Structures are given as C-alpha cells and as structure tokens.
Amino acid sequence: MAEHEDTKGESLIEEITEKFHGGDSSPSSESEDEKHSELKAKIYRLFGREKPVHQVFGGGKSADVLLWRNKKISAGALGVATALWVLFELMEYRLLTLVCHGLILTLAILFLWSNGTTFIHKSPPRIPEVSIPEQPILQFVSVLRFEINRTLFVLREIALGRDLKKFLAVIASLWLLSIVGMWCNFLTLFYIVFVLLHTVPVLYEKHEDKVDPLAEKLMIEIKKQYALFEEKVLSKIPRGPLKDKKH
C-alpha cells in the first residue's frame, strides 16, 4: 500500500510539473513565433517582392525554364536562341530564306520517304495533321491586349503629370533604351534580354540573401540622392495646380 501511494504521489508530481512547463512553454513559443514573423517581415526583398522567385515568374513551366528546374529544356532553349542569333546576326542569314530552305528540306525528305517505301514493300509513313489550336492563341491575345492597355493607362497617367517620379523614371529608361538601340539591332537586343532572363533570375535565387541587403543599401542611397535633387531642382520648377475633373 505504501509503495502504491508513493507511485501515485510521484505521478501526481510529474503531471503537475508537466502542466507547469507546458503552460510556461506555450506563451514563450508564441512569442518566439511572433518574433520570427516580425524578423521575416523586416527583411528587405528586391523590388518589394513578397513571393518566392518561382512564383514571381508565374510558377508554371515558363518559370521552370527560366530558373533551370529542368536543365535539359533550359539548355535546349538557350542553345536554340544562340544558334538562331549566330545564323541571323553573324552569318547574316535571312528569316524568309531559312523558312523556305527548311520547308524544302522537310518536304523533300517526306516525299522521298513516302515514295521509297513502295520499292521496299512497306507501308508509307503516316504524316500527322498539324493545326494551330484556337484556345492558346486567344489566351495569348487576351493577355497581350491587357498588358498593352495597362501600359497605355500608365503612360497617360504619367503624361498628365500626376507622378513626377514615374515620369523621370520612364524618361530615363527610354533614353537608356535609345542608347542601347544605337549600339545593336533589335535581334541582338532580344537575344541579350533572353540570355539575361535565363541567367540573372537563377543566380539571384541562389544568392538572394546576399543580394537583398546590398540592394537595400543602394535603394536608400538612391532615395537620398533623389530627395536632394527634388529639393534643389524639382521644387524650383513652377507647376500649376492640378484640378481633378468630376464626371
């Protein structure tokens, strides 16, 4: 009986200590989670993004290609783009000539293959019917239309003078783009953008913890310089009051 009472007493003591520690640990764990979430919220991300890089690029197959999730497809896309750039830019090949030569070669091979099977007593090859599906084309046109309308809306807002910062940023971007256009043609510029899209995002994803603090310092410095420029130059430019029209 005494042993039974001792075991009961020990179990009661263990339950009390567990409850005591459990009640103690829950608020501390909650406070730790809150601190962790606050630290996450304070971390600066490039361009103010809140999602992972993969989701920023859409999270689909295009994001997989840009971030080299499938190395064979990504390397193949980059290789095809490089081959086309070498053909058109370095070897000065023409698009119409390339299309015609490719069609001639394809038709000649299929014609010889289908007619050569009669001499070796085999059935001719089945050439599949190729047609462009309607739904992807409509989706692409719809997305393109939305982006063009959004760009026109932003340009209209900038032209109305409601956001001076955006106006200066667009003017500077167009000026830099015009300088780049003087150095290279559209095909080379398209190829450079294509290569950058296949290299910069994947490198940033691997080293984002090092890049983001540097980007934060750079943005702070740019804001300081812009504030000085606004104080010394932009504030002295006379501007009339903007009157909002009521419809």
From TrEMBL:
GO terms for cellular component: endoplasmic reticulum membrane. The keyword Flavoprotein does not apply. Keywords: Endoplasmic reticulum, Membrane, Transmembrane, Transmembrane helix. It is found in: Endoplasmic reticulum membrane. It comes from the Eukaryota. GO terms for biological process: response to bacterium. Residues 62-247 form the Reticulon domain. It is a multi-pass membrane protein. The chain crosses the membrane at residues 72-88, 95-116, 167-197. Its main location: endoplasmic reticulum. Pfam families: Reticulon (PF02453). This is Reticulon-like protein. It comes from Trapa natans (Water chestnut).
